[in-house]
């Protein structure tokens, strides 16, 4: 009995260590890594939410490859700290600049885009990385749901405003950082309205915004077909970042502990974004969804072109935009890019 008194806990501990080691081995083998060595000298890359997590790691890698990197951040203080960190790893050919961008304010979105258009002669890659979970369901000054505005409306408007510069700089790339959470969402255009959205739980709102990201990405890809601008979305993986910073303290502590054990680091989580930004393998690829640096199947709803168009038009309406105000992305689609045939869910039409 005395032997088992101490041997039992030891065996249990060894079992836990074995399971954790096996998980780590599987994790290392399954996590995608960008293998492209392509330089970005002469290219301009804009990363939103670049002051922390995946955005910061992405910006650092762009600077290592010689790009001009624009860091679009909400907090001036944290943005300045990120600017200094990115400059420390930048090659001598790279330049780094800081932009003020608060996605909770459409005025800020317009001002940031106007600054870019006035000061940057080109834009080769736009990375819509900024986002958050468990945001307040309060109404913004623009009359929109806070969570929907930060994760969907803001990035959508920002991209609309920069499309002409991206076209001018073609071949260029637009990237939307979404999430596997989009697979668990249901989204109707009327749910974008504040009075409807405020009654929906935080977790579902987050999933809805991630589905909206994929739908809008696909719709941009269709509308920009033939322009030299490619548009794709991605799931970065379960990453230990500040995306959950708005959780209650107790829950955040638990999530942070679990994240340290089982989630990707921001460097690992940035790999698919980096892959889509630089890899020669994805030249000309558009309207697709990636995870671990590979093209993956989207949720069934993401293939619904009618839903994508409806979300686009409802978003324009709620932001007070004139339909088809942006000729670069408002024309009828003649030959939209098709998803991989094997990835089209049975019974889902891909025709506009």
TrEMBL record:
An example Gene Ontology molecular-function term: oxidoreductase activity
InterPro entries: KR_dom, NAD(P)-bd_dom_sf, SDR_fam
Protein name (record): Ketoreductase domain-containing protein
Region (Disordered): 329-352
Residues spanning the membrane: 6-27
Ketoreductase domain: residues covered: 43-242
Organism (species): Gryllus longicercus
Keywords from the named record: Membrane, Oxidoreductase, Transmembrane, Transmembrane helix
């Amino acid at each position: 009995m005395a032997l088992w008194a101490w041997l039992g806990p030891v065996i249990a501990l060894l079992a836990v260590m074995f399971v954790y080691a096996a998980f780590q081995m599987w994790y290392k083998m399954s996590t995608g890594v960008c293998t492209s060595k392509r330089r970005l000298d002469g290219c301009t890359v804009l990363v939103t939410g670049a002051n922390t997590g995946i955005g910061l790691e992405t910006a650092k890698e762009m600077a290592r490859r010689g790009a001009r990197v624009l860091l679009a951040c909400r907090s001036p203080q944290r943005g300045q700290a990120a600017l200094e960190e990115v400059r420390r790893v930048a090659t001598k050919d790279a330049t780094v600049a800081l932009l003020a961008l608060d996605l909770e304010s459409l005025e800020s979105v317009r001002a940031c885009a106007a600054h870019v258009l006035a000061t940057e002669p080109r834009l080769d890659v736009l990375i819509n990385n900024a986002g958050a979970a468990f945001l307040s369901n309060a109404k913004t000054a623009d009359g929109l749901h806070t969570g929907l505005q930060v994760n969907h409306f803001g990035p959508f408007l920002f991209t609309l405003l920069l499309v002409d510069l991206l076209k001018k700089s073609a071949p260029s790339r637009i990237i939307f950082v979404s999430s596997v959470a989009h697979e668990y969402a249901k989204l109707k255009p009327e749910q974008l309205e504040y009075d409807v959205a405020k009654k929906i739980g935080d977790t579902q709102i987050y999933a809805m915004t991630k589905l909206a990201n994929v739908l809008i990405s696909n719709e941009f890809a269709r509308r920009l077909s033939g322009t030299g601008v490619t548009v794709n979305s991605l799931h970065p993986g379960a990453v230990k970042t500040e995306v959950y910073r708005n959780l209650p303290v107790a829950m955040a502590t638990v999530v942070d502990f679990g994240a340290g054990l089982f989630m990707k680091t921001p460097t690992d989580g940035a790999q698919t974004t980096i892959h889509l930004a630089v890899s020669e393998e994805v030249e000309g690829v558009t309207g697709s969804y990636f995870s671990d640096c590979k093209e993956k199947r989207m949720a069934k709803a993401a293939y619904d072109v009618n839903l994508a168009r409806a979300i686009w038009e409802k978003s324009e309406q709620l932001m007070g935009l004139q339909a088809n105000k942006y000729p670069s992305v408002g024309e009828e689609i003649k030959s939209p890019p098709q998803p991989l045939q094997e990835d089209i869910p049975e019974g889902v039409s891909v025709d506009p």
